[in-house]
Amino acid sequence: MEYFIQQLANGLTLGSIYGLVAIGYTMVYGIIGMINFAHGDIFMLGGFAALIVFLILTTFFAGIPVALALLVMLIVAMLMTGLWNWTIERIAYRPLRGSFRLAPLITAIGMSIVLSNFIQVTQGPRNKPIPPLVTEVYHIGNITISLKQILIVVITSILLFAFWYIVNKTPLGRAQRATEQDRKMAALLGVDVDKTISITFIMGAALAAVAGSMYLMYYGVASFNDGFIPGVKAFTAAVLGGIGSLPGAVLGGLLIGLIESLWSAYFSIAYKDVATFAILAIVLIFKPTGILGRPEVEKV
Amino acid sequence: MATGTTTMAKDTILKVEHLSMKFGGLMAINDFSFEAKRGEITALIGPNGAGKTTVFNCITGFYKPTMGMLTLNRSNGKEFLLERLRDFEINKVAGVSRTFQNIRLFSGLTVLENLLVAQHNVLMKASGFTILGLLGLPTYKNAAKAAIEKAEYWLEKADLTDRADDPAGDLSYGAQRRLEIARAMCTGPELLCLDEPAAGLNPKESLTLNALLRGIRDEGTSLLLIEHDMSVVMEISDHVVVLEYGQKISDGTPDHVKNDPKVIAAYLGVEDDEVEEIEEKLDKGIIEEGTV
Lengths: 300, 292
Prior knowledge:
The complex is a heterodimer of chains A (about 300) and B (about 290). By secondary structure, chain A is mainly alpha-helical. Chain A has a domain of about 200 residues. Chain A contains eleven helices and four strands. Chain A has a two-stranded antiparallel sheet. A two-stranded antiparallel sheet of chain A has the order 2-3. In chain A, strand 2 and strand 3 form a beta hairpin. In chain A, helix 1 packs parallel to helix 5 and helix 2 crosses helix 8. The radius of gyration of chain A is 19 Å and the shape is globular. Chain A starts with a helix and ends in a 14-residue tail after the last helix. The relative contact order of chain A is 0.20. By secondary structure, chain B is of the alpha/beta class. Chain B folds into three domains: about 160 residues, 3-Layer(aba) Sandwich (Rossmann fold), CATH 3.40.50.300; about 80 residues, no CATH class; about 30 residues, no CATH class. In chain B, about 40% of the residues lie in helices and about 20% in strands. Chain B has twelve helices and ten strands. The longest helix of chain B has 20 residues. The chains are: A mainly alpha (about 300), B alpha/beta (about 290). Chains A and B meet through helix 5, helix 6 and helix 7 of A and helix 2, helix 3, helix 4 and helix 7 of B.
């Protein structure tokens, strides 16, 4: 039982990270109907931004409180990554809007390759380690929960709430939902659709940056090809939860995280990805729109 | 025509000059000019396929016209060339709003949210592009309150107050039409373009619509409408422009247009020589205008 709870805690941590990345996939898909395959690399970029900020902080401001260092890391990573994703949207996707559907998909894959190779060239192909930032560990009976796990879950929850609030309660979120439903009509009501789409990319990237920073903190290393596997898993999470649905992305992320850690705990760790994708396939057979996805609404 | 040479009378809100729109080899609109007066209801009528909706699409930025100039004169004296504005600026900057023949509501948003999206620019500015709004600043709270009040005002006008929190897609057809007009009005337009607002309405709903449109005009918004229902056109419009095969065939008061032999010919499908015959008779005074 304790073993099970331990695995549950691990899965929850991992799932939070996947969920944050999955939101970026699902938002972009919702608003322009395109899978941003570079999003996984945006996540990786967020981790590197955090790593660089960490190195600067520890070199020039030695003795800085850990909480402050973490906060600065997160904020700078969010800003930097947001800027990257904004630029990518501006140069690689916007000119192709209105082109045939596969065109932005191809540039997205291109951008993914560009980003990972750029990091490989500038940062080197080897794993970059980061000294453990948060080392506190709590024991409850035989269950070990580290402070970083708690931090990850808490930060994710706060961000999810803020994000939910923006999308559902603010004029910006309303414009995003309106743009999602009928881009042209939104423009005719005075909504600057291009700007709204850009902001969506920035928001998605900011969440991915937080996920990337926490991934770095959790595993202690950053690598140029970190974007690939977690990116694919987050994409899977978005599809599993129902692409286009925000709660679906979070649910999908948590499920994938749990499946992965529970499978590794009770069965063979080598097959954990097989299990994840098998479950995705099974869900999609019985519910093609994903768990919380709605079928396309017929227009009147 | 060179820009800047037009001096517009103050009471003209929209001036369309030499508008042409070509789709491949098809000339949908051919050298079409008309003016819409401020504070009036101008109707654009014509047989099916005459190009009325194409004119609307040019005015509201859906199409870039092949040729021609569309000048909008705002009440503050500023003039805008609509064909040069970006899609969202036609509403935001020039104050033109429109509805569609096939209703285009955000069906997944609630009725109230539909009306709030239309006030996006005011709210975005007041919320400091969301950032200040998240901090709960009073300017944003007041703006949000004002936006809801405005929405409630139009909900009442459109008789939808009790449906405010329902998804827009759940409304009946007539109610969706009224909501679309209310939403267009929430953007605070100076010119409201309505594409067949009475299409598919029953006689009772049609009467309510007439009252709504007159109310809008009396509050100072100019209207431009496409309509098939002649009873609506003749009853509410101050000025009628008739379009056939992309060209203007008549322009004037409802009474003038009603008796124009060309219009009658276009609607009833009379041969060209018969039109000439009637025109001749009119000229010679054999028959009097108004009896045709």
